[in-house]
Predict the structure.
Amino acid sequence: QVLDHHIDSTNVLFGLYTIFACGSYNLAQGGHLILFNLGLVIQFSPGSTILVPSSTICHRNISIQPQETRQSFTQYCPGGLFHWVECGFEPSYKNPKVQACFQENHEQ
């Protein structure tokens, strides 16, 4: 499946997103990884792994030929996990610091 260009906005901002590609495809004709912000088009061969700050870099991949196969395995860290820990393992609406900040910024 080809993904349209996107930024993974729910990933943690300071983290790296792991992409591993496998399958049987001609890397000269497709399967490329495009990192728009960096102006890079990378021939991403089967068996390759890359780490990308996907929450800040707009990216996509290019289609392969109809008779070819390409799979990918990705790993990421949702930013919400860090927010959950920062809020004392409670929803943010129950955290006094978050409530105070919200009230402070919405009393006008």
Observations:
- The helical segments are 79-86, 96-106.
- The beta strands are 17-24, 33-35, 40-42, 49-52, 59-61, 69-75.
- The chain is about 20% helix and 25% strand.
